[in-house]
Structure formats: structure tokens, C-alpha cells
Amino acid sequence: MTTVLDGKKTADALMTDLKNTVTTLKAQGVTPALAVILVGDDPASAIYVRNKHRRAESLGIRSLQIQLPKTTTQAELLGRIADLNADSAIDGILVQLPLPAGIDEQAVIQSISPEKDVDGFHPINVGRLWTNLPGVVASTPYGIMALLAYYQIDVSGMNAVIVGRSNIVGRPMAALLLNHDATVTMTHSRTKALAEKTRAADLLVVATGRPEMITADMVKPGAIVIDVGMDRNAAGKLVGDVDYAGVAPVAGAITPVPGGVGPMTIASLMIQTVAIAKRRVHEQQ
Ligand SMILES: Nc1nc(=O)c2c([nH]1)NC[C@@H]1CN(c3ccc(C(=O)N[C@@H](CCC(=O)O)C(=O)O)cc3)C=[N+]21
């Protein structure tokens, strides 16, 4: 029997615990606060930002949505970030990616205070992660580790294969798995004989943005398959990077799309926002 790794159910369970933490923090005079900046009017980004806002509100986290027009200049955006960096009531700052053309994404990421960089994209946090030091970790890989932990899957010694080398998923995923004693192989669009590599995986994490590219013949029977994709197929249906119908019967465990990695990403953002806010309790006293 294939285990469906239910990200929605797991996120809900983790959020019940987190809500209690938020209540305790508020009683100590600290209201966790997350600022999300959205530049322009990309419809997909608007949906994610709305989901984050809803989740924050339901937990009692203060959620600031800062919507800026697509004509916003880089200098204006950096100015808004500087204000949020200086505001001691703000714990986490997230600038929704992608940004409109003409704005230098790295300049924006690097302008966020590393302590408030709740996305974990700042090079300081990336360096901390690869050095196995405490810091903020990118939400999607953090959420995948939390999902595996919830299902009591120990990755130590596993052959983990990652397909996709992005800064927001593939690379931080590799670092986290390595920190948890997996043997990690990174693959990407230039990898030769990809199926040979993926077939060696005990744990396969796919984040390519190519709809349903991982087919049953690329998966070892019994493997754990994590699908980070959020794509539309030719029929306009929301699908992942994994051919779910074909792969699920072969896999030992698999995440669905939707209801897998996506809800865990948002949960992770909330968990790390609250973790940053916790530090303020000590600063106050
Ligand atoms: N600075 C930044 N940080 C991010 O974390 C970030 C970003 N930019 N840009 C875009 C991606 C994408 N992302 C998702 C979050 C939640 C779902 C999610 O909740 N998905 C649900 C529902 C999806 C649906 O029904 O449309 C699910 O998979 O079940 C998906 C995708 C965060 N991202």
C-alpha cells in the first residue's frame, strides 16, 4: 500500500500547536508579525499571498500585506524594506518572487535583515544552512523535512536524489538532507541519463516546474516521492512535476498536488515567523 503524505492534514496539526505558542507569546506582550510585499499583479502570486494572509490571521499572527504597483522602482522597494527592517514590531519580511523585470532580485533579498529574512534566501542564512548552523531555512524544504518527520520517516543513510537546482528549493533541500545524514545527489536539466539516477533514489524530491515529467519507469519500487511542482497540464488541470497516477502505485509514499508540499510551505513560514518573534520576549525583559 502506498502512503499518501498528506500535507494539508499535517499542516493543520502543526498549526494547532503553533496557535498555542502564539497565544502564550501574546500573553507575554509579543504579537508575531509577518510583512508580505507583493509587487505587481501576477495572479498566481496574489493567490499565494492571500493563502499566507489567511493562515496568519487564523493563528493570531499579525499579517501586513503590502501591495505595490508593478511600476514600483527598485529604490522604492528597498526603501520599504529598510522601514520594515527598522520596525521592532515586525518579525518576518517576505518579498514575493518573481519580481517584475528591472528589479534586481538579489539586491532586494540582500537588503532584508538576515534576522527577519523569513524566506531564508539571504546569503547569510544560506551560509548558515550549509554550515549546519541555526538560521532561517527556505520554507518549502523546511516544510518537506517537517512532513517527513510527521510520518516518522528518517532520511539518515538514504540515497536522496533531488531533481532541480533552484535557490528556493533544490539547493536548500540538498543542504537539509545532508544535515540529516542522507547521501545526496543533485540532478538538473543538463544531467545525463536522468532516469538512471532517479531510479537509484530511496527518496526522490522533484522541483523542476515541468508538468508530470517524472514517470513510473523513473522511480524505484517503494521509493518516497516528494512533488514540489505546481503546474497546469495541457487540459488546464493543476498537476505536479510527477505523473501521480502512474507513479503512486510504484512508490512507497508520495505527496499529492494540491494538498502536499504547498500547505507545508505556508505552515513553515508561520513556524519560523513565530520562532523569530520568540526572541523578542527575552529582549523585552
Ligand atoms: N518569496 C517567496 N516565498 C515563497 O515561499 C514563494 C514565493 N516567493 N513565490 C511563489 C512560491 C510558491 N509558493 C507556494 C505556497 C503555497 C502553496 C499552496 O498552498 N498550495 C496549495 C493550494 C494550491 C492551489 O489550489 O492553487 C496546495 O498545494 O495544496 C503553493 C505555492 C510559495 N512561494
Automatic annotation (TrEMBL):
Keywords: Amino-acid biosynthesis, Histidine biosynthesis, Hydrolase, Methionine biosynthesis, Multifunctional enzyme, NADP, One-carbon metabolism, Oxidoreductase, Purine biosynthesis
Residues spanning the signal sequence: none
Reaction catalysed by this enzyme: (6R)-5,10-methylene-5,6,7,8-tetrahydrofolate + NADP(+) = (6R)-5,10-methenyltetrahydrofolate + NADPH; (6R)-5,10-methenyltetrahydrofolate + H2O = (6R)-10-formyltetrahydrofolate + H(+)
Domain Tetrahydrofolate dehydrogenase/cyclohydrolase catalytic: residue ranges: 5-119
GO molecular function terms attached to this record: methenyltetrahydrofolate cyclohydrolase activity; methylenetetrahydrofolate dehydrogenase (NADP+) activity
Its EC number(s): 1.5.1.5, 3.5.4.9
Pfam name, any one: THF_DHG_CYH
Superkingdom as given in the UniProt entry: Bacteria
Residues at which NADP(+) binds: 164-166
Residues annotated as domain Tetrahydrofolate dehydrogenase/cyclohydrolase NAD(P)-binding: 139-280
InterPro entries named among the record's database cross-references: Aminoacid_DH-like_N_sf, NAD(P)-bd_dom_sf, THF_DH/CycHdrlase, THF_DH/CycHdrlase_cat_dom, THF_DH/CycHdrlase_CS, THF_DH/CycHdrlase_NAD-bd_dom
Keyword Hydrolase (UniProt): yes
Pathway given in the UniProt record: One-carbon metabolism; tetrahydrofolate interconversion
PANTHER family given in the database record: C-1-TETRAHYDROFOLATE SYNTHASE, CYTOPLASMIC, C-1-TETRAHYDROFOLATE SYNTHASE, CYTOPLASMIC-RELATED
Its biological purpose: Catalyzes the oxidation of 5,10-methylenetetrahydrofolate to 5,10-methenyltetrahydrofolate and then the hydrolysis of 5,10-methenyltetrahydrofolate to 10-formyltetrahydrofolate.
Record NCBIfam families: PRK10792.1 (NF008058), PRK14186.1 (NF010783)
Family under the similarity heading: Belongs to the tetrahydrofolate dehydrogenase/cyclohydrolase family.
UniProt subunit comment: Homodimer.
Protein's name in the database: Bifunctional protein FolD
Organism listed in the record: Lacticaseibacillus baoqingensis
Organism classification: Bacteria, Bacillati, Bacillota, Bacilli, Lactobacillales
